[in-house]
Amino acid sequence: EALEDDLRQAMQEAGQLYVHYQPIYSAETRSVVGFEALLRWNHPVRGLVAPMQFIPLAEQTELIVPLGAWVLETACAEAATWPEPWYLSVNLSPVQLEKIHLVREVRGALDRTGLAAERLELEITEGVLVAAEGGEISRLAELRRAGVRIAIDDFGTGYSSLGYLRQLPFDTIKIDRSFVRNLESDSSAQAIVGTIVELSRRLNREIVAEGVETEGQFSILNALQCHRVQGWLLGKPMPPEEIASTYFPAP
Ligand code: G
Ligand code: G
Ligand code: MN
Ligand code: NA
Question: Which of 91, 92, 106, 123 to mutate to test the pocket of ligand 1 (most atoms within 8 A of CB)?
């Protein structure tokens, strides 16, 4: 297929593929605590191609394995230049999680870039975790033992049972934007988010709310004692140069 050939080509030359970073804030202090790495592809003819279009293709062809390794290494190198307390969050594809060399690859990226394991969080979507097999669960557990945090992405969309959640190796829950979107208009969305926050506190896990676009949503999340927030209200994904000019020398 044409797009697949173009993606292979893009992976061989500099410039088409790059990483943007979206800030994540403490809900309590409203200061930056970390950034999520988001892959971008600027195609020479088509222009920007959305990740929703090319990531599934990269997964089908397993190009996501070298591509994901490249994102991880690039983002770790970038994060190693940030002020100490800030962390980096990187999305992991289920295809990467399937591979037995994942743990070695993550350790290698940390070693080569000098980023402390404690400053890296890896996001896995809830649906993937629910379907994960023994080997995949043990890889996540091994990453956690190495100090890396695991986040469940798009939480609320993947049908995990509460009993199963208890057994999963993770540190953070990222509440899907669909719940945040309706917070102001729909009291059941508030009840659901409040319950997820309460559950995560009891399990000693942290909560990140995604897709926060309004002050109203922010203050509801703050009142519900959500730990961290991310969304256009606070900051859009940005190129690495902009991080330094916008946020350094803070904190
Ligand atoms: O900004 P946004 O359009 O980037 O992201 C759309 C989707 O693409 C999100 O679900 C996000 O998790 C996914 N995505 C973005 N970057 C990466 C990446 O580096 N690896 C993987 N596996 N998914 C990514
Ligand atoms: O699935 P994941 O959470 O990894 O995807 C992150 C995606 O969410 C990216 O496409 C990013 O650009 C997008 N995003 C980030 N903040 C907002 C927001 O406030 N509103 C909306 N609609 N999308 C957002
Ligand atoms: Mn994510
Ligand atoms: Na998400």
Answer: 91
* Residue 130 pLDDT class (50, 70, 90 cuts): confident
Q: How many domains does the chain have?
A: 1
Q: Can you give the residue range of the structural domain that contains 63?
A: 2-247
Alpha helices in the chain (DSSP H): 2-12, 51-60, 64-79, 94-98, 102-113, 126-130, 134-145, 162-167, 177-181, 187-202, 215-223, 240-247
Q: Which atom of ligand 2 is nearest to 233's Cα?
A: 19
pTM of the model: 0.96
Residue with the larger pLDDT of the pair 137 and 165? 137
Q: Which of 122, 157, 177 for a ligand 2 pocket mutation test, highest count of atoms within 8 Å of Cβ? A: 177
The CATH number of the domain where 92 resides is what?
3.20.20.450
